[in-house]
Structures are given as structure tokens and as C-alpha cells.
Design brief:
mainly alpha; elongated; 8 helices; 2 domains; 170 residues; Serine Threonine Protein Phosphatase 5, Tetratricopeptide repeat
């Protein structure tokens, strides 16, 4: 019985060890591609490591990537997209904020950051971001839709409050 238990534990832990080795190997490939100046290849390897183990890949980004290099923007964007697809809006927002520090007037980053704020329930911050987007690009559809809906709902809420207060008076 004991031998059977050890056999099954080793059988189930083998894929985990192989996965850990492949993540480390892929991260080494990312480092080698960055050093060789092959940014497209590095981003491709990085994307593969995200699918293997996003937490280890994130740790690699924070500890091993030079934040002043041009590839750091691509890697942060990959992590933001991956966390967004996994519905982890807090981490996606963190990486979009990281991207905004490098390009504060990038409408795409601002729009994604505002969308993450809405998903996180931070409508006031999203409102501020969408207003900034409209200052940069007055024809931005997402910002116009959000602000139109937001102000309409606020007006409806105030109208309902006025009607309720008026009924109390009469």
C-alpha cells in the first residue's frame, strides 16, 4: 500500500516538475532573446511562459526586466492582456498603470486602464480617465459612450430624488 501511494504521488508530481522546468527554460530563452536584441522572439517566449505559469512570469518581469528598456513596454502589455483575459482586473490595472507611466497620453492605455477601473467598481476614477481620453481624442467612442451613460444615470438618479422629495412635501 505504501509503495502504491508513493508511486501515485510521484506520478502526479512529475508533470508539476516538468512544468517548472519548462517555465525556467522558457524564461532563460526570454533573457537570451532580450540580450541578443531579438525583441519579437523574446515577446513570443514571454507569451508562452505566461500560458505556462503567469505568477512566475510576473515575478520574472518585476525582478529581471529593465523597466527603462523598450521591451519592458511589450512585456507589461502582454501581462496586462493575460490578466484581463483571466478576469484578474486588479493585476491588469496594475500593469496598465505601469504602461501609463511610460506613455501618459497613450489613448489605448488610458482606455484599457479606465475599463479596468469600471470592472473593479471604481467608477469615479474611470470617469476621470475617460474625461482625460476625451481631452486627447474627442471622437473616442468608448469614452463618449461611458460619459454619456454615466451622466444620464446621474441625472436620472437626481430626478428620482427630486420627485421623492417633492412627494414628501405635498
Amino acid at each position: 500500500m505504501r509503495a502504491l501511494t508513493i508511486f501515485f504521488l510521484s506520478l502526479f508530481s512529475l508533470p508539476l516538475m516538468l512544468n517548472a522546468q519548462s517555465v525556467d527554460e522558457m524564461l532563460q530563452k526570454v533573457s537570451a532573446a532580450i540580450e541578443a536584441g531579438q525583441h519579437g522572439q523574446a515577446v513570443s517566449y514571454f507569451r508562452q511562459t505566461i500560458s505556462l505559469n503567469i505568477d512566475r512570469t510576473e515575478m520574472y518581469y518585476w525582478t529581471s526586466v529593465d523597466k527603462n528598456s523598450e521591451i519592458s513596454v511589450n512585456l507589461a502589455n502582454e501581462l496586462a492582456i493575460a490578466y484581463r483575459k483571466r478576469w484578474n482586473y486588479d493585476k491588469a490595472y496594475l500593469f496598465y498603470k505601469e504602461l501609463l507611466q511610460k506613455a501618459p497620453n497613450n489613448v489605448g492605455y488610458l482606455e484599457s486602464c479606465a475599463e479596468m477601473q469600471v470592472c473593479r467598481g471604481q467608477e469615479k476614477d474611470a470617469l476621470r480617465l475617460y474625461e482625460k481620453i476625451l481631452q486627447l481624442d474627442a471622437d473616442n467612442l468608448a469614452a463618449n459612450i461611458f460619459l454619456g451613460n454615466y451622466y444620464y444615470l446621474m441625472a436620472e438618479r437626481e430626478k428620482k430624488q427630486l420627485e421623492t422629495d417633492y412627494k414628501k412635501i405635498s
